[in-house]
User: What shape does this take?
Amino acid sequence: MPQAAWIPLTCVFLLLPGGLPAQDALETPLGLVLSASNVSLRRADSETALNARPGDVLFAGDALRSEAGEAVFLFCPEKTAQKLAASAEVTFDAKQLRVRAGSLTEKRSVAGCFLPAMPRHTQAAQEHAGAELARAFGGADAGSFESRAAQLPAAQQAALNEQLKKLDAVPAADAAGGMVSRLERAAVLESFNLKADAAAEMRKVTEQWPDAAWARSRLFVLEEQAAKNRPSSGAPAALPEGQTYAVLVGISEFQDQDIPQLKFAHADAGEMAKLLGTPRGGGIPAENIVLLTNQAATRSAIMSAIETHLRGRAGKNDTVLLFVASHGTVITVNGKAKGYVVAHDSSVQDLGTTGIAMDTLRSWFEEEAGNVRRLYIYLDVCRAGKIGQIAAAPKSINSAAEKTAGEDNVFGMLAAQQGQVAIESVNYGGGHGAFSYFLLRALNGDADLNNDGNVTMNELADYVKEKVDESTNSRQIPKEIGDIDEKQVMAHSKRPGIELGAYTGGQQVALAASRGLDAGGSEPAQPGLLRAVRLKYESIADLLDQFDGAIQKGEILPDESAFTYLRALRARMQERDYILQAEKLRTALEDKGQQVLVRYLAGEQRPQSRDEFLAGQKYYEAAALLARDSVFLESRKDFCEGRVAIFDKNYPAAATLLERAVRLDPERAYAYNALGIAYLERADYDRASSAFRDAAKRAPYWAYPLHNLALALAEKGDSEGAIRAYQRAIQLAPKYAYLRYNLGLVYQRTNRHREAEEAYREALAIAPNDAQTLNALGSLKASEGKAGEAERLYREALDKKADLLEARHNWAVLLWDRPGRAAEAISLWRENLARTPDYVPSRLSLARHLATSDKAAAATEYAELLRIRPDYVAARLALADLDAALGRTSDALDQLREALTRQPRSPDIYERMGDAERASARPAEAREAYAKAIEYASEKAERKRIVGKMNLVKP
Assistant: This one.
């Protein structure tokens, strides 16, 4: 930084009235992109054109330009929607649209834009983890939309209902897939201070438009305000609870002898019935429970119970529960795989008729979801593998079962993942299925980890999954379906329950049977997960000590120990206490990611590797797990991932990721600079230059984008512009040697040798051991005919850095032309190739120079070069010439034919083929090749020469 820029260590703010620091003024957007394809968006204060995306807001001075594509947009001042046709450009002014090229079409009236005033650029760093904390520290949940609306004064309720009715009367579909309607609804809800409901609408907008940073910013604000405005106590009373109706099915004995018998499925259902009847399990009256086991559990009995007991009796405020322990399987019918639960009287000959199709259960649940308060389903079944002659499909019944849950009031658990079997054993309380046993234990109070007297849905799901996983050594891992309501109480642990037998298996379960008969598809154990399961039963103090120690040791990525301890803490702590611990880890992760960015700012002074950016990506991804909806973290993650893609030479992917980083955090210079590098690598020098200028504008004291700008300008042939950029960069970072080195390269390219040497000498004064600068200065001296000085500099460069291939190669080129030193040159080239066999400059130079003295050796080098660069046609032609000179005509022709596959209209290659065919005494083939050469030759003299050769060939 310039030394004159130092300011005394006092705080200097530009104050607005009221004493707040100045910030971006709020502006009302003029437009909104509804759809776009192959259309660029250029912001008024940016040179970089981004690909327009649905959800982009448009301010005064912004412009849309289409090439072959088109876009549909709203123009708010006119309350119109219009289409930008192909090859058109439009600029948005405060009161009108200015069409710069092409035309606008399909103009139609709309109600309005419903866009709030907002800053032109979102401040991602301010909208980060705060909403997460607000959600944790806010008051109690304020209930449903209806309950919140009911608290409004009567006049406001009437006004709200009137406005919502008007919205509901308008079709939701629009050019933006209904998003404009959602924006309007969000605006109405916010105007009545229903922030949580406005946020719910805005979340749906962000899901449809994930790159719309303004929408995500608005969501952040609304959610934060909603969380902070929750009442600390006295939440509205819930609707009165109804009754619970349960159908419990357990089948161990099957009528069809081709269906292997189970031992404990009936006991699972029976024990569940006992538990549900206790105060701990909900105190469900006996008349509300239908228990069907073994012979009683026929297909018709099960379906009748569902129809009459559950569907027939349950009402709007009631809860229904279905529990099934049996065999399950999947069969393929007409090419479509279908899942079935096996009833007592099912036949393997036709499960479509005698089994219970999961499609049937799914349809029922979908229909019933709107008619009852809650739906619970527990399935201790999996594929039966092979029942008789029926071969199960690779996917289990679970893939069909999990589709049963599609509504918010549906929750369930499946005994196993796809491809796994559900295990039963005597070790589970004297005889139960693994899943059923731990489900029973959870509902009987064991899942109440925080000892508050309630087993919540979240606690139940975690307990069952983790305990089954642990006891089966990950051969069986239950799966949730539906949505978890973390506050929903599933059992009351301090009320009377039942006595359950102990688990006696350790991790060595004596399998009695599996509810699914082929045991294939088991997954390896997950030691990290099992460790977290056991850790959460330790004391909170011990867990905190271990958690802090893991952070201090830097073991902070998701598969490392800090996350393991944090997962254990989550089960033991209240949410606000947990969030404070999560903040420690998030901060540590961001600190690591920040170091990647800090090193990036040094540019080529401290070159970075792919692995560093990959590490940065992982740190930010991990931090984002602890701060939902953080645009700040997502932008930085995209930046790091984009830089990894540049290293991988996947430039289209890099540009997409880096554009997204710019969108999400448009004031960050690092994203523009990286985007410019992606363009530069694709030789798109104009777009690269624009991005580098935008980066430099957003970070006026950052030298690296000026260096990159100079590179782009030099490639465009603007050497004077490149020199000015370097001179400005050197003013900003006078101690960065790489800037003076690169300035010297520009001077040398333009034959300004004196200035080039001066720049190199200045670079060496800063970094005397820099081998690249010594090599460049040697090259400069060689071009001036000062061979001795050049050789000394090349030697010095290699003394500083022995693996600098360019210096050794340049030294060899210098020696080749010096009398008596050709052997040394060949030795230097071979040393380079011994270090890096794929180094093309030395391989090519060695081959060319050997061709004058040892054609066979030269041919070998060209062949190796073509292995590295098979599309190098000039090398292939050189090898063909050598083969011909060595009498290997057939090999020469093979090389020429291969060259033709890459340049099929080359007269030179066809002429060479004609020469080779004539030398092989194949006149017809020679004349045919010459004829093709004549056809493709563009010069008269060239055609005349080839005709002369053709005439020498006798028919």
